[in-house]
Amino acid sequence: MRKHYLDNIRWLTVALVVMYHVIFIYNAVMPPYTRIGAFSETQVQDALLYILYPWFMILLFIVAGISSRCYLETHSIRDFVRTRTRKLLVPSTIGLLLFGWLQGLLNMSLAGGFDGIPDTMPRVAVFAIMFASGTGVLWFIQMLWLFSMLLALIRKFEKGGLYELCGKANVFVLLLLGIPLYFSGLILNTPVVTVYRFGIYAFAFFLGYFVFSHENLIDRLAKIDIALGIAALLSGALYLYLHFGDKYAVMPTVNSVSAVVYAWLASLALLALMKRRYDRESAFTRFMTKRSFGLYVFHYFPLTLTAWLLARYAKLSAVPAYAIAAFASFFGAFLLYEAVVRIPFVRWCLLGIKKRKYA
Length: 359
Known about the structure:
By secondary structure, this protein is mainly alpha-helical. About 70% of the residues lie in helices and about 0% in strands. It is globular. The two termini are about 15 Å apart.
């Protein structure tokens, strides 16, 4: 039986990722592109970045871990490796060669990246730089593939003892898991590309697989969903008060105690709230569930292209700029998805889809 609350968490979180990037591209805290910039030195709307960043990727990795457990209950390890490689590794490598270089070209243009490249540099080297710059949001599926392969290896040796032990946890133990989550965030962090936080994201993924795939544990959390929600809001307010204006995506802020406490409580609260109150589907949720992966993969290109066009040809105030950028992100992503799924080889490269589903 499909767990609709997981589908709803996934597409809702992806939609929030899109809105995060819409605010981020004009933010005044960690400016991503020198040729777009912020609307003012201090922007209240940047608070959304602090509200979302600590938890939304942690939650996505937890959900991915739960989904991996569900898949492996009815499929072999070989099937798991094959499907995860097609769905995750292919789009983040072959898809990057086919489409990601366009994102890289746009990223480097917006950041002034070509200004420092000498004319004597070989074109192959320039393309390699563009290729790396175009990775963008694909870092998530790259890491998810790596964790999935590690899980496949672990599953060959782990015979169910750890899984059964984790199923005996109570709510107090689940809350205390925030402590090792904090320490996991201190290790295996890449120094330049800061999104590759291997320690904390791997821990979240395996928590999903070993702990939160137990439905009884989610049900226990669901009984205190309101209390968890209030705790998450209070911890988020404290984190925002302590760190608004700091560079939230890098050390030490990204792994401060207040950030991790908030991230953990928010993740638990959303698992509980969605299980208890939104474990159902509708025509809209089916639409979003089917396209959530495409929305994630494709939204950043129309967003950056629109922001570049607005910065070059129009001088808009914040509200219309955000509105146009948000519309372009969602509409452009859905349009690209609907086009790509109709082209056999291209849909395999960019989305890991072998055969189009007409459901």
